[in-house]
Amino acid sequence: MAHTVQDHQMAQPQAAVLSLPPSGQAKRWTVLDSLLCGAFAGAVAKTVIAPLDRTKIIFQVSSQRFSAKEAFRLLYCTYMKDGFLSLWRGNSATMVRVIPYAAIQFSSHDQYKRILGGYFGFQGKALPPFPRFLAGSLAGTTAAMLTYPLDMVRARMAVTPRQMYSNILHVFVRITQEEGIKTLYRGFCPTILGVIPYSGITFFTYETLKNLHAERTRRSQPYSYERLAFGACAGLIGQSASYPLDVVRRRMQTAGVTGQQYGSVLGTMKTIVVQEGVVRGLYKGLSMNWIKGPIAVGVSFTTFDLMHNLLHKMHQLGYFTH
């Protein structure tokens, strides 16, 4: 994606949107640039939707029935009891996780597109649908594998009172001492199983919509509000497809503080279905995800592309040298 929005001079809009950059341009765009743009995009997106994300997690890990009314009541009670900034409790842990996660995801996505393009014979051209989906899935899997313990810590901080954990390091220490180091990877399997369709569908949808947009409008670069719309659609489809595994992941991550015992992915899923039902259990909080998910993904993709364009212009003006 990082190489999809730069070349205004190419004859075909499709190539301008989804192809890799010309060789001269590639020399100016480095892995470090992708890491920087991805980190900033992830931080902005997650900060915007942090209160909704925290509320969703609280409902996911409890047996309380979800509704929009109850969700906003929880937000209001949290604000009245602990103050406005308490709505962002756990966001520091989120930033510690999401900055490297987003940086690795976007940067590795660029590299996987380059590798798959060469393997499938599309080097320097737009990838066909399956390699495009595969590049997104591999990027998400790579990022999740390298940052998973931070996601575990973030979930714990989101659902526990302030007195239980004082900071991120305290969470790591207490979990390791009281529950064992393996607990830091509890819920890893459903995370990876969920990331594969989520990340693949999200990247695939976003780039496909940009491709269709370029073919229809003959413009290589969408406007910012169009990028937001494309990202929102991508997030809506991707999160809806993988949401049950997200619920399973959160239940397994927070078992140590909720008093529940979950042994496996299928076992956790079966317990949720038996106790709460399919829709009210595995899809609890999905309606809130339909609000926060598209916002987060739209902001993330848009910020990444705009940062990418800004850095590219700065390279052209000679501000950076590699």
Automatic annotation (TrEMBL):
PROSITE patterns: SOLCAR (PS50920). GO terms for cellular component: mitochondrial inner membrane. Keywords: Membrane, Mitochondrion, Mitochondrion inner membrane, Repeat, Transmembrane, Transmembrane helix, Transport. Pfam families: Mito_carr. The keyword Repeat applies. It is a multi-pass membrane protein. It comes from the Eukaryota. Transmembrane segments: none annotated. Solcar repeats lie at residues 29-115, 127-212, 222-310. Gene3D superfamilies: Mitochondrial carrier domain (1.50.40.10). One of its GO terms (biological process) is transmembrane transport. It is found in: Mitochondrion inner membrane. Belongs to the mitochondrial carrier (TC 2.A.29) family. Mitochondrial carrier mediating the transport of coenzyme A (CoA) in mitochondria in exchange for intramitochondrial (deoxy)adenine nucleotides and adenosine 3',5'-diphosphate. This is Mitochondrial coenzyme A transporter SLC25A42. The lineage of its organism: Eukaryota, Metazoa, Chordata, Craniata, Vertebrata.
